[in-house]
Design the sequence.
């Protein structure tokens, strides 16, 4: 009887471990979507000041959504999230610099 209980416990712990790994992987995949969206904005042709401002708004909305998902525990507060925030802030700074150059040229 003890051996049966031990076997059941091992199987349940193994299954729980698998589920936890799957959930972590799902959260990791979600942050990858945010990386891609920042890259999409970076690669877009921004010909006018209005395009640059629209891209800034899009990035701010993306940040707000990511923070909301973090609060809802759909994303993990880990190094990947920090890298996402750094990437996003770097892109926003590049857009701000570009606006500064456009304003100086006018």
Sequence:
């Amino acid at each position: 009887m003890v051996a049966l209980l031990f076997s059941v416990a091992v199987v349940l712990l193994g299954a729980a471990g698998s589920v936890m790994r799957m959930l972590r992987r799902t959260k990791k995949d979600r942050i990858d979507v945010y990386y891609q969206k920042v890259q999409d904005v970076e690669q877009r042709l921004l010909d006018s000041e209005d395009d640059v401002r629209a891209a800034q708004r899009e990035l701010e909305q993306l940040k707000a959504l990511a923070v909301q998902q973090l609060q809802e525990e759909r994303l993990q507060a880990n190094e990947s999230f920090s890298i996402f925030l750094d990437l996003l802030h770097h892109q926003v700074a590049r857009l701000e610099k570009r606006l500064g150059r456009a304003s100086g040229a006018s």
